[in-house]
Each structure stands twice: as C-alpha cells, then as structure tokens.
Design goal:
This protein has 198 residues and is mostly helical. It is built from 7 helices and 5 strands; from the N terminus they run ααββαβαααββα. It is found in: Cell membrane.
Length: 198
C-alpha cells in the first residue's frame, strides 16, 4: 500500500516538471525575445531618432546626443550646467550628483569658484547668477540650461563673437523648449552652440 502511494507521488512530482519547463521556455521566448523585438521594432518605426539615442549629426559626423550634456568652456560658446561626474568631463559612465548639501562648505567653495570663472570669462549682466550655471544637476549630465542661464551668457558670447545681442537672443528663443507644466523654459546647449554663426 505504502509502495503504491510513494509510486503515485513520484509520478505526480514527475508530472509537474514537464509543464513547469514548458512554461519557463514559453515565457522566456515571449518576454525575453519576442516582446523586446516587438518594442524595438515599433520604436524604430514610430520614433527612430529617439530610439537610437537622439543623436545629433553635423556634416555626416555624430557630435553628441540631445540627451547627454557636454563640456563647453570656450568663452565664445554658451556653457553647460557644471557636471559632478569627474570635474568637467561629463562622463556618461559615471552619472550622479555631487551629494553636497546646501550647508556644506565644499559646495560654497565650488560655487564661488564657478561664479569667479563666469565673471573672468567676459562681461556678465548685473544681478544674481542663475543657479544652474554654478550647481551640478542630480545626474551630472544635464544637456539643458534654463532660459535665464542662456540669457545671462549673452554679453560674453556677443563680445567674443562680435555679434549683436539681439541676434543671440533671437537664436536662444528659436532653441527654447517649453515644459508641459508651467513655464519651465530650457535650452539644449549643444544645439544652441551648433547654431551659433561661425
């Protein structure tokens, strides 16, 4: 009697492995191969630019991505938001903020240095420096600056390039993106610098 029960239990356990293995294989094919291929295919058809990294190409050469900031330090260019990814390197492999709080003396020191660098590079407007020109973003790779930060840099860029400030203002306006909620106007620095007349 006990032998018959044990044999039946063994057959029951053996019968579970077959359906479990088929389920594992089926879900692996569905969710590990079919679904990613379908999503990739739909993305390539509906939004290929975004699906391929929002790359910016100039003269047949990829110069960057609209999604990842770059380091601009020349006086005749608009500067990006500072990066906390290893100095000013904009290291895409090391995304992250500085983790310096507002009461940290190290943050005060680095902000003061950045303000001094802005003022040393050329003329600046009277008034406070926009916060995003002297503090790093949470990712450290922000490709945008605020509209105020772009406007703040007009005197320096205009002087360096010998351009009319109104022309630069029009260029900034043409490259300003507005947020969905409120007036979170921002400017992609790479695209703005690429549009500057040479």
């Amino acid at each position: 009697m006990n032998i018959a029960i044990e044999q039946q239990q063994g057959r029951d356990k053996a019968g579970v492995w077959g359906p479990a293995a088929r389920m594992l294989l089926g879900l692996s094919l569905l969710l590990g191969i079919a679904y990613p291929l379908a999503v990739t295919g739909v993305a390539q058809v509906l939004m290929p630019h975004a699906a391929n990294g929002s790359l910016i190409v100039k003269d047949g050469k990829t110069v960057g991505s609209a999604l990842i900031g770059q380091n601009f330090q020349r006086a005749d260019e608009f500067w990006s938001r500072p990066s906390a990814t290893g100095g000013s390197a904009y290291n895409g492999a090391g995304s992250g903020g500085s983790n310096l709080g507002p009461s940290n003396p190290a943050l005060h020191k680095v902000v003061a240095e950045r303000i001094a660098a802005l003022k040393a590079a050329g003329p600046v407007p009277v008034g406070p420096v926009p916060q995003d020109l002297v503090t790093a973003s949470a990712s450290g790779l922000d490709p945008h600056i605020s509209l105020a930060a772009a406007l703040y840099q007009i005197p320096r860029v205009a002087q360096q390039r010998k351009l009319d400030a109104a022309r630069l203002r029009a260029l900034i306006d043409a490259h300003t993106e507005h947020g969905w909620f409120g007036d979170n106007a921002r400017v992609n620095v790479l695209q703005l610098n690429m549009a500057l007349p040479r």
